[in-house]
Design a protein that fits this description.
Strand 7 and strand 8 form a beta hairpin. This protein has a domain at 3-114 and 232-348: START domain (Alpha-D-Glucose-1,6-Bisphosphate, Chain A, domain 4). It is an alpha+beta fold. It has helices at 3-16, 36-44, 50-57, 86-94, 96-99, 146-155, 163-184, 202-211, 215-219, 223-228, 320-348, and strands at residues 62-65, 73-82, 105-110, 239-247, 254-266, 269-279, 283-294, 302-312. It contains 11 helices and 8 strands.
């Protein structure tokens, strides 16, 4: 499987999840101007130029890449003005099954509180998703720690007539155990992925991504700690939920778990973060920040700014610079069309 086209598609989809585009009929710039706190974050930390801020207020799509801080890292930011209220945007985001649905999303569902195996009833785990017969330490087609891989021969009868059902049940139970440990703060998290030649430490990768996004704490003090130490440093009044999805990319789909946090630090502005808790393939760590701020006093329109920073093993090593350049170019070329499609959907739902 060619990694480069796959990662191009993956980051294009990540960069577009949860934001909307512009149209020729976008609201005019508000005389009162943007929330000064948001403006400061955009200019100082997300590298928006004065001309980009002007374009944003005029209803044009604004998008650019951000500097990477580590090998395999990719970062993108985009902004749009939408003819929808802040409340409408957040209501749509909470309905994540409908909001995220699209051609590339094969299956999706929300976790309950606490997470249970029943939450994954709609998830199909096929041979292309997880094949225990070919899964060995340092050679497995999904992200798993060594101790989990070592249990496979004891817990799945690879010669049994129902091996597929066993494999699906095993994968779901293992995934739910990881999610439950994440939510409770107890032991049992996946601390390392040992599916390839180079072990991956997802918690360390996420910590690096979080450090590279100071905009989060600049907007909502304490939110970075909330994400880093969840659930042991909860932010007052923050709203949290988790969902799972199975998404199509290249020749093999991937299954992921995402933690969504919504906080509103001011009357005009709300912030939503999406944190990758687990991805069965491709992604080492991912964190997105969505800023939803009233465009004017009427609250009839919002400026939406989305920043995503991710790390992927396929963007490391030989030809990594070329791969990253291709990713950046294709994301920029495809983003506006996708943004406008999402924007049209949300505005028609008013």
């Amino acid at each position: 499987m060619s990694a480069c086209p796959l990662i191009v598609a993956m980051f294009a989809a990540v960069a577009l999840a949860g934001i909307a585009g512009a149209s020729p009929h976008a609201p005019a710039p508000a005389p009162a101007g943007m929330d000064p706190v948001v403006r400061g974050v955009l200019t100082r930390l997300l590298r928006f130029s004065a001309s980009e801020l002007s374009d944003l207020q005029r209803g044009r799509v604004v998008k650019h890449t951000l500097d990477a801080n580590a090998p395999g890292e990719f970062a993108v930011v985009a902004g749009v003005r939408m003819g929808a209220s802040k409340a409408a945007f957040l209501a749509a985001a909470r309905d994540i099954v409908r909001f995220k649905s699209g051609p590339g999303v094969l299956q999706i569902g929300r976790f309950g509180s606490p997470p249970s195996i029943d939450d994954l009833a709609a998830l199909s785990v096929d041979k292309e998703d997880f094949d225990p017969a070919t899964c060995r330490v340092a050679s497995c087609d999904v992200r798993l720690p060594a101790d989990a891989i070592a249990r496979l021969p004891r817990e799945i009868d690879l010669r049994g007539h129902n091996v597929r059902a066993q494999a699906a049940a095993w994968f779901k139970q293992t995934l739910v155990a990881d999610v439950a440990a994440y939510v409770s703060g107890g032991g049992g998290r996946f601390m390392q992925y040992d599916d390839g030649d180079n072990p991956i430490a997802p918690l360390d990768a996420f910590a690096g991504v979080l450090r590279a996004m100071p905009a989060i704490d600049a907007l909502v003090p304490g939110l970075a700690d909330h994400l880093a130490r969840f659930p042991n440093a909860r932010l007052p009044d923050a709203e949290d939920f988790l969902y799972w999805s199975k998404e199509e990319f290249g020749q093999a789909p991937f299954i992921s778990v995402t933690h969504v946090t919504i906080a509103c630090p001011a009357a005009r502005t709300c912030v939503m973060t999406t944190k990758d808790v687990y991805s069965s393939r491709y992604i080492d760590a991912s964190l997105a920040l969505t800023i939803v701020t009233d465009a004017d006093a009427s609250s009839a329109a919002v400026d939406v700014v989305y920043a995503n920073r991710s790390r992927a093993d396929a963007l490391k090593g030989m030809l990594s610079g070329l791969r990253k350049a291709i990713v950046e170019r294709r994301v920029r070329n495809t983003m506006e069309q996708s943004l406008n499609t999402i924007k049209t959907h949300l505005e028609h739902a008013r």
